[in-house]
Amino acid sequence: MMFLSDNAAAVHPNVWEAMRAADAADSPYDGDVPSQRLDAAFSELFGRECAAIWVATGTAANCLALATMVQPHGGVVCHREAHIEVDEGGAPGFYLHGAKLLLAEGEGAKLTPATIRAAIDPIRDDVHQVQPHAISVTQASEYGRCYRPQEIAAIGALAKERALGFHVDGARFANAVAFLDCSPAEAIGSADALSFGCIKNGAMSAEAVVFFDPAAADIARYRRKRAGHLQSKGRFLAAQVLAMLEGDLWLDNARAANAAAGEIAGACGDRLLHPVEANELFVRLTPAEREALRAQDFGFYDWGADAARFVTAWNSDPADAAALARAISGL
Amino acid sequence: MMFLSDNAAAVHPNVWEAMRAADAADSPYDGDVPSQRLDAAFSELFGRECAAIWVATGTAANCLALATMVQPHGGVVCHREAHIEVDEGGAPGFYLHGAKLLLAEGEGAKLTPATIRAAIDPIRDDVHQVQPHAISVTQASEYGRCYRPQEIAAIGALAKERALGFHVDGARFANAVAFLDCSPAEAIGSADALSFGCIKNGAMSAEAVVFFDPAAADIARYRRKRAGHLQSKGRFLAAQVLAMLEGDLWLDNARAANAAAGEIAGACGDRLLHPVEANELFVRLTPAEREALRAQDFGFYDWGADAARFVTAWNSDPADAAALARAISGL
Amino acid sequence: MMFLSDNAAAVHPNVWEAMRAADAADSPYDGDVPSQRLDAAFSELFGRECAAIWVATGTAANCLALATMVQPHGGVVCHREAHIEVDEGGAPGFYLHGAKLLLAEGEGAKLTPATIRAAIDPIRDDVHQVQPHAISVTQASEYGRCYRPQEIAAIGALAKERALGFHVDGARFANAVAFLDCSPAEAIGSADALSFGCIKNGAMSAEAVVFFDPAAADIARYRRKRAGHLQSKGRFLAAQVLAMLEGDLWLDNARAANAAAGEIAGACGDRLLHPVEANELFVRLTPAEREALRAQDFGFYDWGADAARFVTAWNSDPADAAALARAISGL
Amino acid sequence: MMFLSDNAAAVHPNVWEAMRAADAADSPYDGDVPSQRLDAAFSELFGRECAAIWVATGTAANCLALATMVQPHGGVVCHREAHIEVDEGGAPGFYLHGAKLLLAEGEGAKLTPATIRAAIDPIRDDVHQVQPHAISVTQASEYGRCYRPQEIAAIGALAKERALGFHVDGARFANAVAFLDCSPAEAIGSADALSFGCIKNGAMSAEAVVFFDPAAADIARYRRKRAGHLQSKGRFLAAQVLAMLEGDLWLDNARAANAAAGEIAGACGDRLLHPVEANELFVRLTPAEREALRAQDFGFYDWGADAARFVTAWNSDPADAAALARAISGL
């Protein structure tokens, strides 16, 4: 009964099916039929013109998006615990050619206009200090917290006011939209680009980067090739993304994961370090308690000395979630 | 009847099967069982200790390999028509942080010790000129020509003599080994790293980079993550590579492609611009002749004004190859 | 009697004097009075608004200029023998973050619209090939040849037509303008930026980069700091540049160097490999002849097996030039 | 009466004299006589073999030194308030090709083995997090605090234990050694490279980078050229550095600056935010007090809302220092 992460879960049957259907040779790279359908599919989803490209990882998605907004001598405002800062092996430094991450604070790994200002207002407007060129937020955040539409709108407004690019890392965007119960467009506000995560949500090896400025997408296409991310059988990636969108599979899968998380959360009471909004739980548990759970065959990561992280996935068995809930209640 | 390229061909059934078998959740990234088997599988194949990592494209494979040999202020000797120079969108400049490609000549897009020396001996040994740090050759070359074991050994010896790294781009390594009928080890000589191509040969989205120096592989693992190429469901890539190695599928597939190319070559006579050794044919054909072939439903690329390129694949239908041979004979 | 290079010649007395006059403490970096005068001085020189920054070397000047025009995934068209390609130790690869130099041909190391087109027209307009973002020419060229106003205008027109940036490397711009006897503005046409050389022409350690787009200068100021080129006692660099402009010292110095070169050229007849327009001579001389000249205490570099390069400087003694002329005549 | 900074002070007469003496043409770049003397001069100063290169700024010195120790995918441990983090416009990101600064704490902007460990021990030893490759300390620190020999030795020992490079930013190294009254060697311990500052201490435009590993110096020479920092009239930079070393001018100048700072410090009592060890004073002063001092014609920078920074220089007039001391006493 695995609650280690959603990032290695099995692939959804619909995704498999779409991949098999794409087997027949088609144009290489992104000249194939499924790849050519991405722009329209995301334009429909977001209710406005956009351009979308597939890419194999969230790290590449984030970095390709940011590279269209940030010059090498600039910086990206992000949360101190953002994935791009903590867990991407320095990829932003690579893709942005040495640009700097400018760290901001915020509860639940969420930025606010106030914490962003606190990070950038002290930067002297001279050449000795790295100037911000963009803001990046994570929806849902590293602690599974979701930006409400008005929160994301306020950050977008600040970005506009300061002439900064605005990127949303949506590795778990589906879980956020499922929780917020709003439109995808409302969940990103005036973002210039979104990393639209699929892999944690039932795909195998395809994320999408959605650009709301077609010129940015053009640049990203060159950068994708230059980063060795333009696969010759790209149709298999496009097929995965389209399968996720088809019939709102992306939302159904996220709702299932969120429901499992909610089931477990119900048993955690004030053990919870963060309110559970998406599919991650950060739960105060002593070493002995964690040992007890592991003895019952539950898999999860320690989170510091006194807590654990549980992550549900699209295919988490409700019975497993219920079992975990009972086990925690029984501690 | 498609002879456009092998790079978008269908995926071999064994590869599909191995991918399906890998569906059950396993450790993320490359902690899974199939990924952990790669080192041993390639050590056996090459008869010496090596370390291997998967990656999604040949471009990434080449660049990650070179990045272990070349400092940012150095250069890579390669053929003027090498893929890394001509067709990778500047990826080497990105991955090597501005290092330079130092272009050399050679018939059939093959380097020789003499052409390498001709390229590097005039470089003044001072800080004003970019010094070579590595040599990269393509086996089989961009014109489908194969380095004989003694040829590759001679280049390896030169690399050692000059203290240069030595990389083999093996996007079509299987076709080369199938043609040379030698051991894989003989086909790369003293190379420090090999891009072992699978995608053109029946895989979907996995190449391997094989390092004969474990320290280099360690660096490459960091660089792979930093380049956004460490997929969380990496087991699906490892499974593809292992399926290609299993029972020598990689060689069987290459032999089939080579055989189809040979069948067509037999009909081309002195139309051939290059001897056909692997699975590519460069054939002198007037515009009218090309039109005639296309009217018979053959697909291929023009190669300049007076020639065409045909590429066979692991699944080229022998009947199609025979039909093309007849059509060319009949021109 | 040294004709090795102008790049290590003594510093002109006026430059020394200006530097001494700048000794008293002033604002650091480029907040000092002399630095603040640069924009106006160059705006007057070129008869239109421009922004100018000092920098310590021609390599940094060229690269900072180009970095405002070329994205990391793009390329710069330059001559195969351009300084940025041959003699800057890979600096463009560093400053442009891996962008590529796209090499073009042209007699006397001068590009023409035709040779530029020949270099870029074959580049497929797709992500697999590096697209040109800028053109860089050298005025005077590496062989001391000067672009006539109409020639430079034609290249500028091509740059505009193709939406490319246009940079002029003017390491010996003074010698070119002295030869062309035209206005500085005519000698650069519609260039977006000029590396205005001073060091080879009597300064110690200051070149200027002149930007005709103020937004580009703003970027270059950040990039200059980021490259460690923003000196805290920048007033000493500004003073050098202003001293060169004052009373047209830059042109007087260049005329003296050109005159010395002309004196020598008169004795060379058909030994000249290139017409002498600026202050460099490329002279066919056998090894024995070169030995004979060196025996008479003339210093110069060999230029391949059968020629020599002589360079005159602002302070070349006319008597030395006459002596060299006589010695060559007497061979 | 200027106490703004030492970074724009006048040039010492001995330095001027040495520069004038270097005027006669010599070999370009660093082939000249003064440049060739640097290695020996610093080897004598430090009592062991070393190799030294000149460079025009402290930023370039720091970055070239670090580039020999840190791979692009690695990180540099430095203090949160280190110059490389705060005031170099992102130069480390540029020179290190995206490597990351890993921030550590410490009183007075000084690191300790404990604060370094606190910064790096939590870094997971996997490819998802940037691993430390080097430690950089500033001697004297950004608050004018000096590492005692045993303190620097302890950090050096930690660097060795963890196989990290060890760099000392010595922009005000002279002031530190003058304060510590130890040998230069003791002041850097087992550092691999030192940025030996001259500009703040009476030079015009030359710092030295001293490498205790000759292989590192070789790499740095290539990187210096590649960064556009190899000046063709490099003899003028070498002459400055040698003039500073000659007769221990560097120490005499630093002692004068330190003495002036000490004079002022004596009047500051518990207004001092940091003990005064070198030539910088951070003094608690209300806005009104600062206004009063400025009305008496003292120049200095505000340091936050309630303090001011005063910096003395090699040429601070003792009378001015005494006057400032009196003025502060009289507040």
Short description:
The first copy, chain A, has 15 helices and ten strands. Chain A has 331 residues and is α/β, with parallel strands linked by helices. Chain A folds into two domains: 13-248, Aspartate Aminotransferase, domain 2, CATH 3.40.640.10; 253-329, Aspartate Aminotransferase, domain 1, CATH 3.90.1150.
Secondary structure: elements and pairs:
Four copies of one chain form a homotetramer.
Chain A: H1 13-21, H2 33-36, H3 38-46, E1 51-55, H4 58-67, E2 74-79, H5 83-86, H6 91-95, E3 100-104, H7 113-120, E4 131-138, H8 149-161, E5 165-170, H9 173-180, H10 184-188, E6 193-196, E7 207-211, H11 214-226, H12 235-245, H13 249-265, E8 280-284, H14 287-295, E9 301-302, E10 307-311, H15 318-329
Parallel strand pairs in A: 2-3, 2-4, 4-5, 5-6
Antiparallel strand pairs in A: 1-7, 6-7, 8-10, 9-10
Helix pairs in contact in A: 1-12, 4-11, 9-13, 13-15
Overview of this protein structure:
The structure is a homotetramer of 331-residue chains. Helices cover 41% and strands 15% of the residues of chain A. Chain A is of the alpha/beta class. In chain A, helix 8 links the parallel strand 4 (131-138) and strand 5 (165-170). In chain A, helix 1 packs across helix 12, helix 4 (58-67) crosses helix 11 and helix 13 packs parallel to helix 15 (318-329). The radius of gyration of chain A is 20 Å and the shape is globular. The mean pLDDT of chain A is 97.
